[in-house]
Amino acid sequence: MSKVTFGRYVPVDSFADKCDPRGKLLFLIAYIAAVFTAKNFYGLAVVAAVLLICAVAAKTSFFKILRSVKGILFLLIFTAVINLFFYKGGEEIFSWGVIRITREGLFATLFLAIRLILLVCGSTLLTLTTSPVALTDGLESLLTPLKWIRFPVHELALIMSIALRFIPILSDETARIISAQKARGADFESGGLVKRVKAMIPVLIPLLISAFRRADELGDAMDARCYSGSKVRTKYKKLRFSARDLAVLFAAAAMIAGVILFRLYFTWSV
Predict the structure, then answer these.
(1) pLDDT band at residue 28 using 50, 70 and 90 as cut-offs
(2) DSSP readout, 243-264?
(3) First-to-last CA distance in the chain?
(4) Residue-range definition of the domain harbouring residue 231
(5) Quick check: 98 pLDDT over 70?
(6) Angle in degrees, CA 70, 174, 124, rounded to 5
């Protein structure tokens, strides 16, 4: 089984699991807004503290959430290197040929890396504590006003839910295919970059075939159950806001207020 946590729902009897999916989606929107609003490390510290509190409320290990960063590790390293070596201006702390590292560039790189990690961890926490069905219902409910302009709200919510559901499934399938190829003598670890990319071709082809087969089976299963996104479709679980959801929204507002406060009154920025 793959260790990828993003998109994988883990049912736990916790405060976060019992919250309304609409409240959690609104909290995630506020969380993302707070991450991009933060102008200094104080603001990011507020967001990180909120993330830790949410992990405790979800009864989930913070290190388990951090595992999701492995999926963007290459992107994280690439953007960090670009920012570190090509940041212009500031106090120079290292120079070798055309490579020039400044103090401000180092802080900007660290700031960007923390921002990306917080974004991925926050999104992962939502998928860990919300089932795909609840996520679909919550997203569809929040986007209901768009139905007035004939926007396919239900179809969009369904597509996003299925896409999130397939991430851990395809990750597990990839791990099984790689294990099978290694058992046949395939080598994915030695050689240069080009050789490693070529070695992945026997993995990608069966993975694509498996993905198309699963998608086809899912479509047949939905047709067999007469699935339809029409207005007359009923839901087994009705979404209802409770006191805990109001507490979640209040926490989101407090988080944004704290980030804005540090942005306005603290000058240590990057």
Answers:
(1) very high
(2) HHHHHHHHHHHHHHHHHHHHHH
(3) 41
(4) 15-265
(5) no
(6) 35
User: Alpha-carbon distance 206 to 253, whole Å?
Assistant: 47
Q: What are phi and psi of 78, to 5 degrees?
A: -65, -50
In degrees and rounded to multiples of 5, residue 102 shows phi and psi of: -110, 160
Residue 41, in any domain of the structure: yes
Q: How confident is the model at residue 193 (pLDDT cuts 50, 70, 90)?
A: low
Instruction: Show Cβ contacts of residue 160 under 8 Å, excluding neighbours closer than 6 positions.
Output: 135, 136, 139
Cβ pair 127, 6 in contact under 8 A? yes
pTM to 2 decimal places: 0.77
Question: CB-based contacts of 171: which residues, under 8 Å, 6+ apart?
Answer: 2, 4
Domain assignment present for 106: yes
What pLDDT score was predicted for residue 94? 65
Is residue 29 predicted with pLDDT exceeding 70?
yes
Q: CA-CA distances (angstroms) from residue 42 to 111, 129, 145, 206?
A: 11, 27, 36, 47
Residue 257 has a pLDDT of 92
Closest to 105 in 3D by CA, of 92, 116, 114, 95: 92
Task: Tell me if 98 is assigned to some domain.
Answer: yes
Q: Report how many domains make up the chain.
A: 1
User: 149 pLDDT band (50/70/90 cuts)?
Assistant: confident
Answer whether residue 6 is part of any domain: no
- Give one DSSP letter per residue of 73-124, joined into a string: HHHHHHHHHHHHHH--SS-EEEEETTEEEEHHHHHHHHHHHHHHHHHHHHHH
* Greatest C-alpha distance within the chain: 69
**The dihedral sign for the CA sequence 8, 12, 14, 19:** positive
Tell me the mean pLDDT in the region 163-191: 79
Amino acid at 93: I
